[in-house]
Amino acid sequence: MKRKILFVLLSFFVFFQTNAQCAMCRAVLENEEGQEIAKGINDGIVYLMAIPYILVAGIGFLIYKKFNKPKKSSL
Fold it and tell me: Where are the transmembrane segments (predicted)?
């Protein structure tokens, strides 16, 4: 039980450490002149986020289609 609590606490602190941006990305995004670059970075993040969801949905759909084939009635 102590190991589980220790693991949760350590992973919680590691999460906060990895939640930061790199210095160059932050400097570009905070700059008023780099709004086009910021829009490009945001679009890239959306594309990177959407691709895994689309792949998982496609695989889920294929599995659904495979296991839910209509049963043939024998006359």
Answer: 44-64
pTM above 0.70?
Answer: no
Q: Which domain holds residue 35?
A: 2-67
Q: How far is CA 66 from CA 32, 57, 61, 70, in A?
A: 52, 14, 9, 10
Residue 72 lies in a domain: no
User: Cα 29 to chain center, whole Å?
Assistant: 21
In a domain, 73, yes or no: no
Beta carbons within 8 Å of 25's beta carbon, 6+ residues apart:
41
> Per-residue confidence of the chain (75 residues) as pLDDT tens digits?
888 888 877 776 665 544 455 666 667 667 767 677 777 877 888 888 888 999 999 999 999 999 987 776 665
Work out how many domains the chain is built from and give that number: 1
